[in-house]
Amino acid sequence: QVQLVESGGGLVQAGGSLRISCTGSGNLFTMGWYRQAPGKQRELVATITRVYSTTYADSVKGRFTISRDNAKRTAYLQMNSLKPEDTAVYYCNAPNIGGLDFWGQGTQVTVSS
Hints:
It is built from no helices and 10 strands. The protein has 113 residues and is mostly beta strands. It has a 6-stranded mixed beta sheet with strand order 2-10-9-4-5-6, with no helix packed on it. It has a 4-stranded antiparallel beta sheet with strand order 1-3-8-7, with no helix packed on it. It is globular and about 40 Å long.
């Protein structure tokens, strides 16, 4: 069983920065961040494996950085040069070894123009 808790969301002006965190329990393999804007489907933002290999959505490349601290069981998403279109609920994801997805409760990120 994996449990995930996100933190660090909030309101920021366009061009600003924000860092969100996800702390998990259980066996954590690849961890990822997804987001869902109102009226839109949930989309992948970034993933990071236990050995720190990363992937990013094209829309956030060069602006967002995913990282993790395995000792703290925490993944981070540093978001720079934020745009209003980045406004969404951000969800942490961590599938277990069997491929079953676990999700956090989500944290709201709002970027004002």
